[in-house]
Every structure is written in C-alpha cells, then in structure tokens.
Amino acid sequence: MTITNQIDTGLTQSATPPASASGTSNPEVQQVIRRLTRIWGDFEGRLRAVPIIADAHAGRIRLADYRTLLKDHYAQVIEGSGWISRAASSVSRPYLEQRSLFLRHAVTEHRDYEMLARDFAACEGDPNELTDARKNLGSMALSAWMYHRASQPNPFDLLGAMFIIEGLGQWFARSFAEAVTQSLALSDAQTGFYRYHADHDPDHLAELEEVLGSGVLDLPGMADTLVETAAVTARLYLLQLEEVGHYG
Amino acid sequence: MRTAYITGTGTCLPGPAIGNDAMETYIGTLSPAHSRLGRATLRHNGIQQRHYARTAEGQTTHTNAKLATAAIRAALHSARCRDNRLDLLCTGTTQGDLLVPGFASAVQAELGISNLEVASFQSVCASSLMALKTAMMSVQTGQSEAAAVSGSEYSSRWFQPSFYADDYRNNPDPGIEFLRYTLSDGGAAVIVEPEPLPGRRALRIDWIEQRSFADRFPNCMYAGAATNAAEATPWSVYASPSEAHQAGAIALKQDFKLLYELFPVWIGYYLELLDRRQLNPNDIDVFLPHYSAESLGQEMQRLLQATGAMIPQERWFNTLSERGNTGSASLFVMLNDWLERSEPQPGQRLLCFVPESGRALAAFMHLTVV
What we know:
The structure holds 2 protein chains of 2 kinds.
Chain A: H1 2-10, H2 18-22, H3 27-47, H4 51-58, H5 63-89, H6 96-122, H7 127-131, H8 137-150, H9 158-184, H10 192-200, H11 204-212, H12 222-242
Chain B: E1 5-12, E2 18-19, H1 23-27, H2 32-45, E3 49-50, H3 64-78, E4 88-93, H4 103-111, E5 117-122, H5 127-140, E6 147-153, H6 174-180, E7 186-193, E8 203-212, E9 221-222, H7 241-246, E10 253-254, H8 256-276, E11 286-289, H9 293-306, H10 320-323, H11 330-341, E12 349-356, E13 361-369
C-alpha cells in the first residue's frame, strides 16, 4: 500500500534524502502549507488588536495584567499536554510513527508550563494561585475544541492547529516580550517563557512538511479538515487572549 | 474594455551616484553614535550608492516636482509621445514640496502642459502604483488616450540634522537612522496608452492589486507625530509648527519591530493572490520586488519555498543597491532598468511587488511584454 510505503520513507530522517523528507517538492503538501500560511498570516495580523497586546505595545499594561496573562497561559498550556496525549492515543495503525510525533510534543508542553510558573513567581505571583488557576472563557472554548478534535480517529488535522500555535513562538513572542519588558521594566527572568520561544522554537515547518508528506494526506478529506481545524484554532486562540482575566 | 499598455519609461536620478563613504556629506552627521547606526543599516540594506537632489554644499538642485517632471519628460521621449497627446497626469509621492495643494498640480505647472486631468496620490512606496492604477483604468475605460504617471521622492531634505528636534543629537533612534541611510532622491515615470507603439516593445498591464492592513496595525513608517501610539498628537494640532518640531513630531520614523510583524500578512496576501489569480510562481519570468531577497530573511524564504510560492531567486530583478531606495519611484526605476538592460521578449510575464510599511499595505502588478 502506498500509505505504508510513504510512512517508511517519510519519517525516518536518516533513511531518506533531504529533498523527499522535506516534502517541498510535493505539490499536495505545498498546497496545504500554503492554505495554512494564509490562515496564520491573518491570525498574526489580528494579534496586535487584541486588548492585552495592544496595551503592552502602548505602554498601558500593568504588572497585574501581565501576571494574569501568565496565569491564564499556565491554565491553557497545562491542558496542552492533555489534548496532545489524547491525540496520540487516537492514532491507530498504520500511523504509529506519526503517533510518536504527538508524544514528543506532549513533553514540550510540559516544559512550557514550568517556565510560565517561574515567570509568574518572578512577577511576585503567589504560586498557590497557579494551583487553582482556572481557564478563561476563551481557553475553555479552545481546550474543549482541542479535546474534541483529539478524540477523533487519527486526528492529524491537529497538525494545522500546532502550526498556528507554534508559529506564534517564531514571530510574535519576541515583539511581545520586548513590549512588556519596555512597558513594565521587566527582567529576563520575568519573560522567560516568551523569550525561550522566540529564541528556541524549532523549525516546525520542516517537521510539518515531513509529517504531511508521510501519507496522512491520503486520509479522505484530511487536507480540508486540517485547514479548517487551523482556522478554528486560530480564532479560538485569539478568543483566549481577548478573554484574559474573564472566567464567568 | 480597452487594454492599457506602458509605452514608455523614464527616470530622473539627480547628480552623480554617491557612494557610502560620501553620503554623510549630503545628509550630514548628528553624532558618532548616529553614524554607527548608519553603518549598521548599510550592512543590512546592501545599498552601495544613491543620488541626492542637492549639492555637496547643501544647495537643492531639484524640488520633488522637478524630479517628477524630469522623469515624465524622459518617459514621454521614450514613448515618442507629444505633449498635447497627454490628457491625464497621476502622481505618487510620500510628501510633495508643499503641504497644500496637491502634488500633481505642481508637476503639471512644471511640465507646462495644458488640458490635463490631474490626480495626486499621497502614500509611501506604493503611491505610484495607486497612481498607475487610476491611469490604467482611465485608459481602459476610454477616459484617457495618454496618461503620465510618476513616482518621486525628495527624501534627503528630511534627513538634514536641523530637521530634527535639538535633543535628537543625544537620543539616536535606530528607526530614524535606518531611514536616513536607506532612502534617497529620485523620480521615475511611465506613459500609459491604449495601444503599443508599432515595432516597439511595450508592457501590457494585466492587473494591479493592492490591499491595506491599516485596520490591524499602527503606523510603521510615518512623519507628523512623535510616536505611533494611537493617541499621539498630530503635528498640526500642536500650538505651532515649531513646537511640533521640537517635540519630534516632524521627523520621518520607522518602527522596526512592527516591520517584522508585517511580513506574515504580506506573505498571506501574496499566497491568496497566487491562488485567486491561478498564478504559478514558475511561470513568472521576472520578479521585480521593491525589496531584496536578503532583507526578506531566511524564515520568509523558507516559508515561500514550503508553500511552493518562491519565485526562483535568479528571476529577481532589483537595482536598489545601485540606484538607492527611492520610495515611490523605485518600482518605475527598476522597470526602466530592466527594459534597458534585458532584451524583453513577447510573452514574458513580470510580477511587481511593492510592500509599503507606512501603515501595512502591499501592492502587486502583473505585466506582459508585447
């Protein structure tokens, strides 16, 4: 079967030449990444208008606002390893290689919430508040959506969601970290999470190309679902930022 | 509807080409710290030489209107177009010589051509494409038989040390110095007609598209306020122009960090355009970006490759490094250079791209050699 063959060549980096592993020559993969990039471009462009981000750039943000953002992110990110693990468990044969990709990401998410906790403490936040941290209204919607998608069989459409969220690190995290640093005279220890992502986010593009080229697009309707999931995730991610501090 | 063709091009790049070592003779020096930022800018923008509409002694040689006029004269000559055939003049510039009235009126006066409709477009780098679009549509709809379109900038007047508030000497701003060491003077023009000239190459204008993202970004390249915060006071609302000047509201500025954030929306727009217009990057013979591939950065090039949207770099044509960045004139300067240096072949397809950081817009134009 073609699917199995593509898996064999797609995800075993050492066994494949870079050209085919990167997927750049695969028009089907390129078309999906193009549609995802359009969604991402629109999403990134809308971030500046989100109140807490606009406040950071205009110097209107207060330390309490930033702490609330860290706390809300903490509550959000702690769910991240949850839905990614759920996604991993929804993957069945013959996609076991792709399952390990989800598992690797679950570990990364774990490190994320630890960084957020350190930043929060450095901003004079009470660690006990994190124990009780609730998801804000947008986070509720975002998490529910992620778990819903992650519960479907072979939920590779979540790769679209991951592309959107990880793209944030590469492009947006730095300018936001600089804006809050300037507004609030923060130290590096207080903005570790954003700085880490600005400096260290891996080339998620290569990983995406690789996994998209590994046969998952052969699943019926997967390309369209993947793009749809990315679009919904982008909208809900904005909602999560718009609703910082609002818990119902 | 008729078809619009670019039948002639012309430029006015005033005076000799000024190399990097000599440029401070023309824009002055503010402090060693300012000059250091300037040298860093030159390493980044790759510009080797440029032109200034002033002498080494500081005497203005051309107003902005004179730059536009000389370029239009050259374009009329190149199109073999008599003055009295011209019925429309569309100008694009970042800032005319006067605050009021419109710049096209000043250019018409300099040209001394009667019976013209005029249209003044004031924006930043893409203002000349806005002007060209009006000319294109006027020709297409039979409202014009021959239109002159200019893009021109007298940028260096902004960059004179006395143009800045007194305390700017002590507070160098990388965004301001970036512009001082990047922008220079020049004009360029094209003539638009409903027929190509027999026996001569012309460029058919297939379409011009532009989109603004001012709904989601603050000002990125701007003059007239001390900062790009929404509540910043416009220069005209200060008690007097001299107060505005001392508050730093007159200087031309660039918000660097914001510039970086504009790339995703520009790329998103480009990808949308490829899909909507069913354009295959491999079918584009020449790509004329008001930008260099190097400045685009590794990440963006990588993204364009991953989306199958990268026009092979050997097809990029760009003369910014030798002509300087002349803002709204730049694209027409490049078109003029390309027509002079290459041997245009019928059927060749050109894609022009002008991102305007001013308040985040991007414009594209598709041309076919006939």
